[in-house]
């Protein structure tokens, strides 16, 4: 079998299933703008940059046109594959950046699976979550234009995959029957507790389990991932607890939203605002994955905050490492964490309460012992890598089988061959 993955900066969320399929003898091709990590045996075909600025939320301006151009470029590549006798049996790709828009125009009878990460809504999600953010008609129009790219793909795909039930629920109800809630998986053999783990800071300090270490991790340090709230809570904890040490992994760029006005990045702005002494907080930048896992293993209190938005891999990995979890009480987190059972949940905006929960984890670790165990059990029962890959393979097989039985049927007129209810990730 030949599968083509489409991702702007791939393989991204497809890295695990791509490796699995290659080991099983599939021909696996990635069509992308750029590669975020190498995968042995993965054939890469690049298309020129045709998408808008990289942002997880809708941006102002004519957002649809660049994504349409990306879709055309991907379709050209798919047609060339077909002309040279190497057409895919199935195409699976991220639907947000336009690359999947014209798959069925290029390959009308080829099975198509969309990765449905996030659908923008004017209420209940990231947009309008901050009290200071206004929702005017121009913003609503921008959201609708951004969603138009996804809608054109939702209409033609045979099936969709969304990492969590909450992310699936953001999509229009008319299309939810096509979408299966299925996470890409967490490697529990790597993300695991290790009481003997150590982590060396840039200044040479060696951290180990039992040290009063408060950790925070995000791709970039910005409001979408609650970095301002973390810094303000850390400043409170730091003043009251001289022994506490704060370690932050994440870059100074902007993955979602926008940068701060009048400052180069949120890190500098929040350091100035909080007055947290630089010697008390260690900024690591973006670190290798193995180092991030070691950081989770020595954490005495791991803080995870997010707008109502996509759930971070790193959060589930921290849970799998048995780190004491203190997280924002927002919808994607509530799908995973039950307050007092496998972590503590706090209102995103209540800084003092976050500080209190951090102090509780630092100085009353016995209260978190059972929660740490339950956190790993949660990930093991619902997000274990091998099981997730098996479920995704079964889904691909069902879609391929359905297309073979009815190759000319319009996907929107057929029931989608998703997994049994018991196989869905809830």
UniProtKB/TrEMBL annotation:
Compositional bias ranges of the Basic and acidic residues kind: 410-426
UniProt KW Transferase keyword: yes
Keywords: Glycosyltransferase, Transferase
Gene3D superfamilies according to UniProt: Glycogen Phosphorylase B
Domain of life of the source: Bacteria
Chain ranges of the Glycosyl transferase family domain: 25-189, 209-377
Region (Disordered): 400-426
A UniProt-annotated Pfam family: Glycos_transf_1
A biological-process GO annotation: lipopolysaccharide biosynthetic process
Enzyme class label: transferase
Protein EC: 2.4.-.-
Gene Ontology molecular function terms on file: glycosyltransferase activity
Protein name (record): Putative glycosyltransferase EpsD
Organism: Roseibium album
Phylogenetic lineage: Bacteria, Pseudomonadati, Pseudomonadota, Alphaproteobacteria, Hyphomicrobiales
């Amino acid at each position: 079998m030949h599968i083509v993955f489409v991702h702007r900066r791939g393989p991204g969320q497809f890295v695990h299933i791509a490796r699995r399929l290659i080991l099983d003898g599939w021909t696996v091709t990635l069509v992308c703008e750029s590669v975020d990590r190498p995968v042995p045996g993965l054939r890469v075909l690049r298309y020129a940059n045709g998408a808008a600025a990289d942002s997880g939320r809708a941006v102002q301006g004519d957002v649809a046109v660049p994504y349409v151009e990306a879709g055309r470029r991907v379709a050209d590549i798919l047609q060339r594959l077909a002309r040279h006798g190497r057409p895919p049996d199935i195409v699976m790709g991220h639907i947000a950046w336009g690359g999947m828009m014209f798959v069925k125009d290029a390959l009308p009878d080829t099975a198509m699976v969309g990765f449905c990460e996030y659908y923008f809504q004017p209420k209940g999600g990231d947009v309008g979550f901050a009290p200071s953010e206004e929702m005017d008609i121009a913003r609503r129009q921008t959201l609708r234009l951004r969603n138009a790219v996804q809608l054109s793909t939702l209409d033609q795909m045979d099936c969709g995959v969304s990492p969590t039930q909450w992310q699936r629920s953001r999509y229009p109800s008319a299309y939810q029957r096509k979408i299966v809630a299925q996470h890409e998986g967490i490697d529990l053999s790597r993300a695991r507790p290790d009481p003997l783990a150590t982590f060396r800071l840039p200044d040479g300090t060696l951290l180990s389990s039992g040290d009063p270490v408060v950790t925070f991790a995000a791709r970039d340090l910005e409001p979408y991932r609650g970095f301002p709230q973390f810094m303000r809570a850390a400043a409170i904890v730091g003043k009251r607890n001289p022994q506490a040490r704060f370690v932050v992994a994440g870059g100074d760029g902007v993955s979602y939203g926008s940068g701060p006005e009048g400052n180069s990045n949120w890190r500098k702005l929040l350091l100035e605002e909080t007055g947290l002494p630089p010697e008390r907080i260690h900024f690591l930048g973006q670190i290798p994955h193995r180092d991030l896992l070691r950081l989770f293993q020595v954490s005495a209190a791991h803080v995870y905050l997010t707008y109502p938005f996509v759930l971070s891999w790193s959060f589930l990995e921290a849970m799998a490492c048995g780190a004491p979890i203190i997280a924002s009480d927002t919808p994607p987190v509530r799908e995973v964490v039950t307050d007092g059972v496998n972590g503590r949940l706090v209102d995103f905006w209540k800084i003092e309460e976050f500080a209190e929960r951090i102090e509780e984890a630092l100085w009353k670790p016995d209260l978190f012992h059972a929660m740490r165990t339950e956190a790993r059990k949660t990930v093991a029962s619902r997000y274990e890598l091998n099981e997730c890959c098996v479920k995704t393979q079964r889904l691909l097989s069902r879609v391929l089988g359905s297309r073979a039985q009815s190759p000319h049927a319009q996907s929107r007129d057929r029931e989608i061959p998703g997994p049994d209810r018991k196989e869905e990730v809830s």
